[in-house]
């Protein structure tokens, strides 16, 4: 299985900050990398597909980049509703696997 | 707009079989080329992929669970189901169903709300 490692595991930031979350794959996955946001007690919400494609309805302050083994999710100006956990997921090979998550907290 | 909803017992005894159903509304599970998935999340932990059943009825299971998992469907009721045998406390988790884009190797959207299953005597 392809292992996905996110960093940091947790992050404290303030409204208006720019933050970046990193996801690293244990082997090259081309651009087959997706991102989700999850709030407590809720299902994950799909944000970004194929490393940089923004899902319809997702605010433009979210962006993704990367290819091969290293990927990033950037939120350009944090809003109060962005404080949540974020997960990456590879869709290069079966079984699909997720990163362990990054918890974004208010400073 | 497609919506998914999980249902089933919230408490299962050790060694028994966990059975959940995902009811789909707003679209047919047997058309559109979509794949229908189960994913779980242990309390306070990350997400683990379980498997799928596709629009034709073909299935795929995560090798880590393959010996204990069956995913089936009832097209007349437009739902698909998960059975996990010989459960232990390690199977306590929130179980989600989700639709797959791109033929079994895509992203998951939308998701059901999830249902907590606790394995305990």
What is the secondary structure topology, with strand pairs?
The complex is a heterodimer of chains A (about 110) and B (about 120).
Chain A: E1 4-7, E2 10-13, E3 19-25, E4 33-38, E5 45-49, E6 53-54, E7 62-67, E8 70-75, E9 85-90, E10 97-98, E11 102-106
Parallel strand pairs in A: 2-11
Antiparallel strand pairs in A: 1-3, 3-8, 4-5, 4-9, 5-6, 7-8, 9-10, 9-11
Chain B: E1 3-7, E2 11-12, E3 18-25, E4 35-41, E5 47-54, E6 59-61, E7 69-74, E8 79-84, E9 93-100, E10 108-111, E11 115-119
Parallel strand pairs in B: 2-11
Antiparallel strand pairs in B: 1-3, 3-8, 4-5, 4-9, 5-6, 7-8, 9-10, 9-11
Structural features, described:
The complex is a heterodimer of chains A (107) and B (121). Chain A is globular and about 35 Å long. Chain A has strands spanning 4-7, 10-13, 19-25, 33-38, 45-49, 53-54, 62-67, 70-75, 85-90, 97-98, 102-106. Helix content of chain A is 0%, strand content 50%. In chain A, strand 5 and strand 6 (53-54) form a beta hairpin. Chain A is mainly beta and 107 residues long. The model of chain B has no long low-confidence stretch (mean pLDDT 96). In chain B, the strands form two sheets. In chain B, strands 2, 4, 5, 6, 9, 10 and 11 form a seven-stranded mixed β-sheet that branches. A four-stranded antiparallel β-sheet of chain B has the order 1-3-8-7, with no helix packed on it. Chain B is mainly β and 121 residues long. Chain B has strands spanning 3-7, 11-12, 18-25, 35-41, 47-54, 59-61, 69-74, 79-84, 93-100, 108-111, 115-119. Chain B is built from no helices and eleven strands. Classes of the chains: A mainly beta (107), B mainly beta (121). The interface between A and B is medium-sized, with 24 and 24 residues.
């Amino acid at each position: 299985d392809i292992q996905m490692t996110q960093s940091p595991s947790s992050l404290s930031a303030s409204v208006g900050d720019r933050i970046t979350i990193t996801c690293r794959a244990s082997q090259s996955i081309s651009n087959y990398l997706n991102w989700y946001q999850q709030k407590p007690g809720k299902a994950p919400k799909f944000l970004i597909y194929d490393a940089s494609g923004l899902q319809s309805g997702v605010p433009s302050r979210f962006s993704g980049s990367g290819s091969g083994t290293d990927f990033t999710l950037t939120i350009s100006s944090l809003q109060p509703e962005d404080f949540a956990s974020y997960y990456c997921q590879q869709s290069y090979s079966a079984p699909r696997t997720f990163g362990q998550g990054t918890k974004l907290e208010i400073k | 707009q497609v919506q998914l909803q999980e249902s089933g017992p919230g408490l299962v005894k050790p060694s028994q079989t966990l059975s959940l159903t995902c009811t789909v509304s707003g679209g047919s599970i047997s058309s559109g080329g979509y794949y229908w998935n189960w994913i779980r999340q242990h309390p306070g932990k990350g997400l683990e992929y379980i498997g799928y059943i596709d629009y034709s009825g073909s299935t795929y299971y995560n090798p880590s669970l393959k010996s204990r998992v069956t995913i089936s469907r009832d097209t007349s009721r437009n739902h698909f189901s998960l059975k996990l045998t010989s459960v232990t406390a390690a199977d306590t988790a929130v179980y989600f169903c989700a639709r797959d884009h791109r033929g079994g190797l895509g992203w998951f959207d939308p998701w059901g709300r999830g249902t907590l299953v606790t394995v305990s005597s």
